[in-house]
Amino acid sequence: MALTLAEAKQLSQDKLTNIVIDEFRKSALLDVMIFDDTVKPQGGESLTYAYNRITTQATAAGRAINSEYGAQETKTTRYTVDLKPFGGSFNLDRVIINHETQVVNHIQFQIEQKIKATRALFADWFINGNSATPTQFDGINKAVTGSSTELEPTTTIDLSTSSNIDTNWKVFLDHLRKLRAKLDGAPSLYMMNTDMFGIFQSVMDRAGINLANKENYGDEVAVWGPSLVMALGDKPGTANPIIGVDAYGETSIYCARIALDGVHGVSPEGSPLVQIYLPDMTVPGAVKLGEVEMVAAVAVKATKSAGVLRGVQIVANGASS
Fold it and tell me: N or C terminus of the chain with fewer C-beta within 10 Å?
């Protein structure tokens, strides 16, 4: 069974859980994400999702009468991804919980902040995750690096100033459409950092393309054709962008087609996508613990379902690579 957060909310009868899901849905990335909730923990220990990634596409050709087709097979490579628990906890003194309620509900406030951080962590790992770090799952950067959907211009696309945008916006759009052409379908999402998102809007203004805006998310999200365009923001607890800028002032734009045969999330079978653990006020102990947690990972079923455009300069005076 595959679930989105919106569908998980419909299945839940718990008001608090629904509120928590709504908080997670403020991320456009998480809101459109499909989770294949089929991972069965074996003996309570295994959280591994195995799948075959299409690495060579099928071909077709004509044949002469009384001759055979040249045999060719779609090739796949077996991959596994291990689901990871992520989220956070907080401690509150029971006196604060019981008596300091005039200004803010401290439990609600802490839960909202942990959800915000967990959303940011999922977005960070979705792009930059690397299972070489045991607590992380692999992100799409690892999948597309060195693949046919990694597009790096021979010359840096300089959009670092308004005059450079005037000069180079057509080149930028040409490369973005070249990236789109390499994929196996229209991307569900184009993802970039906040500065690149502003420049993207300026490029579209110059091109005379009207970008509609989504208003049901917590952050501004634009719509370009069938795709959402979003800034992923910063890594949790920092001011460092999830999609960074290198020493040359260059950044990247990622895209992904969210689908069960493309890029999707995976989660444990029969488990809520989001779980909260409220402080237990019925047991002794002055300091109460609360937690927010997801258990998930990302699968890239086809190399052509995700891609990246590199070499876009957005910081002025950066040396070209």
Answer: N
